Each structure stands twice: as C-alpha cells, then as structure tokens.
Amino acid sequence: MLLEHIARGDQAAFAEFYELTSRRVFGMARRVLIDVELSEDTTQEVFLQVWQNAAKFSPEAGSPLAWLMTISHRRAVDKVRSSQSSTDREAKYGASSQDIDHDSVADEVDSRLEAEAVVRCLGTLTETQQESVRLAYYGGLTYREVAEKLNAAVPTIKSRIRDGLIRLKTCLGVS
Asked: Is 129 within 8 Å of 167 (Cβ atoms)?
C-alpha cells in the first residue's frame, strides 16, 4: 500500500500517490472554494498533510481515497471558514470605526418592534416547534444537540425546525 511506503519516507511512493490522486483533491477543493489559487494552495496543504501524517492512516477506518478526500474536504471548508471570518472581522471593524449619523432612538424602537413581532410569532408555533427553534437559534445548538436534548431523532428535529421557520416567515410577512 502506498501510504505505508509514504509513512516510511518513500518519495517515489508519494509521487505515485500524488499522480494518482491530485486531480481529485484539486477538484474537491475547487468545488468548495471556487477560486483556482486557493484550490491550488489547499491541494498543496493536503499533500503536505499526507506526507506528514501517512502513518496515522488506518485501513480499518476506510479506504486511502476516502481518507484523502476527507482531509481535502476539511481543508477546503476550513479555508472557507477562515476567509469568511476574516471578511467578517474586516466588515465589523469597518462598521465600528465609522461615525455614521443616524437616529439611535429610531433604531432602538425598530429593534424592539421586531423583537416583539418575533416573540408574538413564536407563540403561533406548536410547543415542540418552539422548543426546537429556541434551542437551535437562541441556544446555538446543532440539530444533533437539539435532538439529544429533546430525546428525538435528528430528522424529526430538522422537520420541526424547518416547519417552525416556515410558520415564522409567514407570520412575520417575510417573502
């Protein structure tokens, strides 16, 4: 197996592994990242990780290709998150460093009216929908965490939240 040879520092095995898999890794990165240069960087990082961590591959956990594609997907998603965090930080800094003339009283009134409307519309949901939506959106829990907390199946929780959000959208008049 090529990964065993790579784990022992065999450069020829690594070159063969790269030749056999690099297009797939780049394709995965490109689908997630879209940007060609970021995809190329991510592909390079993935193969560096393979070189450094080939000994950690466990055949019991799956095929070498599945392991590689998991690493690729995670790296690409990490890049997206990192890029988004950077963009968010810059936007937040830009917004906080600008002195914008605005009516803070009107903003406060608008916020309170919106909050009251949301609370009123939450009251139109079934009890199970309310509980699921509150845990997910106000509690910051994932579907799985909500399911565990409510002792329900994940698909059930997804349905409750989806149906609840549809009812909220209708009640709030959001199109």
From this structure: yes
* Architecture per CATH, 2-93: Orthogonal Bundle (1.10)
HSE, side-chain direction, 13 A CA sphere, residue 91: 6
> In Å, how far are 80, 97, 103, 104, 107 from 100, measured between CA atoms?
30, 9, 10, 10, 13
The fold of the 105-172 domain, in CATH, is Arc Repressor Mutant, subunit A (1.10.10)
Residues in Cβ contact with 134 at an 8 Å cutoff, skipping those fewer than 6 apart: 122
For the stretch 13-60, pLDDT in tens is 999 999 999 999 999 999 988 889 999 999 999 999 999 999 999 888
Closest by CA to 132, choosing from 103, 111, 109, 162, is 162
Taking Cα atoms as reference points, which of 70, 67, 80, 84 lies closest to residue 32? 80
pLDDT tens-digit readout, 149-164: 999 999 999 999 899 8
Residue extents of the structural domains in the chain: 2-93, 105-172
Amino acid at 76: A
Nearest Cα neighbor of 43 from 67, 18, 66, 7 is 18
